[in-house]
């Protein structure tokens, strides 16, 4: 006793006890981070779904196409058009992708993500209508780039591939017809890496044997 007050002895933990306490704290922290990440994912998914619902089109609708991945004959990107068109919607691929009707001389993939399209409201005053769509040119680096293939499936008499697009999330993956991908070498290489997946090349090999 010192002046009527008991000496306070610091609480000491053995090394194993301290390790267990630290492990519990780490577990709690990791669980909190996990739940926060899940909450962020749910919020983003809900926001994306709301945005997608706002960007739905019907066959025959007129839409404008963003020039984000496209070059026109304008001298520089700074002076380029932000949107070109209008073009007609030909087909709804899924909730996030549409096929549009491009001029026959434009040899680019004509399926676009909804973020690259916007509804065209034709003005009542003809003088305010957009000029005729300019000539387009596109390079491989500026296209709608395929990052990877995730899956394959039969669709009627044809084949479709689940495409992962460069710069987009998993929610934006789209099923694309084999013929529209226009890269047999890439598809063959993918099937070589995934021999257990169904493949159009297996049927071709059997037919040739």
UniProtKB/TrEMBL annotation:
Signal peptide per UniProt: none
Domain of life: Eukaryota
Coiled-coil boundaries: 22-56
Chromo domain span: 144-202
InterPro entries: Chromo-like_dom_sf (IPR016197), Chromo/chromo_shadow_dom (IPR000953), Chromo_domain (IPR023780), SH3_Tf2-1 (IPR056924)
Alphabetical keyword list: Coiled coil
Protein name: Chromo domain-containing protein
